[in-house]
Amino acid sequence: MPLPGERNGHPEQSLVLSGCLRSECLNHRIFRKKRFWFAAALGLSILVITLNRADLKKLGASFQEIDFFWVLAALLASVASYTFIAAVLHRLLRGMHHPLPFPDSFRISLVSTALNYVMAMGGLSGMAVKFYLLSREKVPPSSTLSISMVHGFLTNTVAVVFVYLGFFFLYSQYKMSVREMEVGIVILAVAFVLTWVTIHVIISESFRKRMWQWLVLALSWLGSKIRYPSWYHPERAERFFQNFNRSMNFLVKDSRILLAPAMFAVLDWLTMFLCLKASFLAVNYPVDNRSLLVGFSVGIFAGLFSITPASIGIMEGSMAGSFYLMGLDYDQALVATLIYRIVYYFLPLLVSFFFYKDFFVSSAEQLESQNPLPTP
């Protein structure tokens, strides 16, 4: 159900879609950028250092003794988690009267989540990809933005709860230096501020309008410095915000729309936690849930603002290191972490590449068919 001003052929739609097509080109080029390969090399170097800190013979023996029943359980938990992520998006789309078949919702959520792993920027890269993919399904731009924001909010807010619980157990049960406590407080403060701002943007129309006014002032200042670039159109931007504001009001005024997605978001993170637990059982090393929760929350935070693609090296080192500081065996914790990383991150990332090619190659072909090159 498009909102006023969002019919097919409206300049706003064309503006957003053209911007998305430009972002598509950027996504294709990212793997050629030097910064990407430098970050990948850095991550692999950190991973090598992490592996070298272990007893390689003991590491090899742990891999040989893996219980594949629990590996399969971890894999099933991973599949369930990604299915619940898709269910959150699917129910939000249905609540906004833009229903899609569940397989399409699954592919969109999988690709956006996977690309968010590759380019982790606090969830923003995944939301941008989701925005583009939903726009290809003829979902109006403002509805696409509101759905993407609420989808990211529901999944990331549960993650922040896990981070808080993990740090709570860490502070209450283990001795920490003053410096470590200061870093932890800063991390929790950042998580709290981001969550608070996001909640208010979603539920408070007045706060949403104030944030928009500040953004407009910032864009106007930036435009004056670079002589009002062609991409900034105040009238279109204001029309877009008004449609976005109405779609957000529609989404939050009926709590029943958000009830099922919130439930699926909780199930998503619970099955993700079960994936980690099964990974430890796969190396015959059962660990209590509190210790697992601490390492789990460390891994979540490491993945939110990672400087390496897919948090490679950083997540393995931080999770195994946190388990070691809690008195667990470093080698077995590292093997379990590697199983968890492969099952939950790298295998879905590999699968998403097939969908990624299908989405973006088909969109390029569609664009070419709509705008054929002139024949000589």
Describe this structure as you would to a colleague.
There is one protein chain. The protein starts with 10 loop residues before the first helix and ends in a 6-residue tail after the last helix. The chain has one domain. The longest helix has 41 residues. Helix 5 crosses helix 14 and helix 13 runs antiparallel to helix 14. The N terminus and C terminus are likely disordered. The relative contact order is 0.15. By secondary structure, it is an all-alpha fold.
Question: In summary, what is this structure?
Answer:
This protein is an all-alpha fold and 376 residues long.
Structure keywords:
disordered N terminus; disordered C terminus; single chain; 376 residues; mainly alpha; 0% strand
Rough shape?
A: globular
- Helix and strand pattern: HHHHHHHHHHHHHH
Low-confidence stretches: 1-28, 362-376
Helix percent band: over 70%
Percent of residues in beta strands? under 5%
What is the mean predicted local confidence, pLDDT?
Answer: 77
Structural classification? mainly alpha
Distance between the ends: 43 Å
Number of structural units classed as domains: 1
Number of strands: 0
The largest pleated sheet is described as: none
List the total number of helices: 14
Radius of gyration: 22 Å
